[in-house]
Amino acid sequence: MKHPPGLKGFLLALSLLLGLLILSTGVGILGYLALEVYLAPPGWTILVLALLVLVPGAILIGRLFPWLTDWYYFLPALSFLLVFTLYPIALTVYLAFTDYSGRKNGFPDRSTETRVLKQEGPKLILEEPATEALRCNPCEGEPVEVYSEGHRARARILEAEGNTLVLDRTPPFQAAFVAKVNAFRFVGLKNFAFILSQANQALLPVFLWNVVFAASTVLLNALLGLILGLILNNKGLKLRNFYRTVLIISWALPGVITVQVFVALLNYNFGAINRLLGVLGIYPIPWLNDPDWAKVAILLVNLWLGFPYMMTATLGALSTIPDELYEAAKVDGATPWQALWGITLPLLEKPMVPILLSSFAFNFNNFYIIYLLTGGGPAQEGRLATAQATDILISWAYKTAFSAEGQSAYGLGAAISLLIFAITVAISLVNFRITGALREVK
Amino acid sequence: MRQTLAVLALGLSLALAQGKITVWTHFGGPELEWLKAQARAYEKTSGTKVEVVEVPFGDIKQKFILGAPQGQAADLLVTVPHDWLGEMARAGVLEPMGKYVTQSYLADLQEVAVEAFTFGGKLMGLPAFAESLALIYNKKYVKEPPKTWEEFLALAKKFTTGSTFGFLYNIGDPYFNFGFFRAFGANNVFAKDARGNLDPSKLLIGGEVGEKALQFIKDLRFKYNLVPEGVDYGVADGAFKDGALAMILNGPWALGDYKKAKIDFGIAPFPTPPGAKNPWGPFLGVQGVAVNAYSKNKTAAVNFAKTLVTGKNLVSFNQAGGRIPVSKSAVKALEKDPVVAGFSRVFPLGTPMPNIPEMGKVWGPWANAINLAIQRPDSNLKKIVEDMVAEIKKGIGR
Fold first, then answer.
1. Measured between alpha carbons, how far is B379 from A379 in angstroms, rounded to an integer?
2. Could you report the per-residue pLDDT of A327-355, keeping only the tens digit for each?
3. Which pTM was predicted?
4. Angle made by CA atoms B348, B351, B352, in degrees to the nearest 5
5. Which ipTM value was assigned to this complex?
6. Are strands A151-161 and A143-148 parallel, antiparallel or unpaired?
7. Partner residue opposite B229 with nearest CB, options A269, A379, A399
């Protein structure tokens, strides 16, 4: 059989390979879970079991579709894609519709650990009354884990009366302890409803600032980068390479460190910048303490971090403009100003637009500068504690999932991430449509 | 062939790891040295290797809850504050310790420590030391600790000059401000129900109490001009270490550094704020060691945990850093220590921090409200408190 042509063949090959990988991983994990009840297998059992399916499976599929064997070179890359890209995405989508959190994480609650005195089939005699020890009322239907050294098994409670607990299956070993499982459940669209119910205090203002932040960052950085690039491109400039090196330093320094240095520099009473302004006779500026000034501070620090990238991009784009054009312009009697507006800027547009667009997309989710510089703060009246003056969507999601709500509202955080994903896709589509960048690339 | 080798190597490294326990700690400086010395001593007597890993305090809970079920967390935590226990225990990552300890061990512990470390009727860790905030003063400036608000204010104003400060503290953090909420009428964050358990539906820090407390905190900045903008924990702590600060609200964890900086300090309760009906009283925190329920080497981890909290070792721990042990025999041995004596006068004023998981939904909005109140002199406290209560209620009700 020959390789099916075009997109159809590509998709067929990809789905065959992905199917094989998912099947073998699934067998590995299920096999491990099945074994876990009887003995305590080490974690790499999953890998061994998966390989036991993967290798014969690959040979079998290779017999059925001989053209597919070339595609086997893709297997390592595909398995990485599966583990590090597709799996987290699928998990995020899944979690967004559950109430998964640190407390409801599907693991047994050790504070309900109760000793099992006697076991007769699915009937357990506990040390204490079941409803109190397992903190469940009613207990019927609640999932529990029974375990002893090296063994564990999950079951559901059928009946709980006094110290007696009847499970829906018989543990295949002598149980020593039983504990209630913190099950998480599907909650449908409840997470999204919760987010939208607070739209005025969080979603809308955060979204607005997010757009303003990304757009002004790109504009400011591009403007400064363009001006410096044009100046540095002037062959008549002495010490050109020296300036270029100096200007690129802020890009070369790790941002994680410089941003934290800026936090100290921008301190209201004790920072070097306000001291300097004080020497010049200017009142101290509440850089990080005022909701509006904090936004300015973020834009300025991001300018310091980002302009060398734009400058380098400009220099690169400038070097592709042939000198003949300028010579011709000179012959025709154009002033340098006219050459700039007539030749340089129009020719820069084409290479720069994709860079600006990708820079916008990057800054739209530029988590680390917000997190390190202001932590989303300062507080702003009428807003949630997770969505303060300089929070952008992604830092809001982070704070919701990891720092508020008992540090672990993963379901809610996943729902916010999905919303951000939808917003980012929408903005990118609009961007591409307006600028026609996608068409030109084709 | 190569595959079998890799599998063999993996198995071998796992087998070797059996004789090893990992300890996550947030200790630093002399306290970290103390822990490492304990680890080395334990290695010698037991033959189990102990690896001490430093993890930032703020990261421990989340990393542990996520990592423990996957086998990617430490066997032992040194130490966790008791207010994390409810959440960690419900997440199922803590090993209940009741079956490992003896009655005589429990009898040597202060009751409040056992109570703080009990969640759902089970002992979830071994308490080691207690802590609370107190007014720490530099004896270079303050000879006698202020007994009344007027004395305090006079002292604080006297030393607030261009180069020195009278009184600074981490003004934006609710933990550092709870004492004022308590003074203005909030016994704790939540009220207790009929059975003596904290009831998350009864919030005490809102309403008039919250407004009065926020007004006082705001006055510290804008009326008394003591705590200017830009002051956070680092600034206050650094100023005290440099000897440029007369009085600070801080806890026992900072004392090791103050000793190292050769500051001659004393410890006293903060005076009752003006117009408050109760005395100032801080959050009482108990910290202790906790064992990973998923540990592959539980026996060794438990044994090492037990050696860490013996009365004798807690005395040497106190000498390293200055924390106040909860073991009765250790406190007795340290009776003459001015720090232990000073804090034992502050502890009775305080109340244990809630250890129910709902507290996690209070900190964020609470901090937000405090920061809003001190942002501008004309901040609308009534609205700030209302918003805070609404956000907390919404979070808890979810």
1. 12
2. 898 898 888 888 888 888 888 888 888 88
3. 0.78
4. 120
5. 0.74
6. antiparallel
7. A269
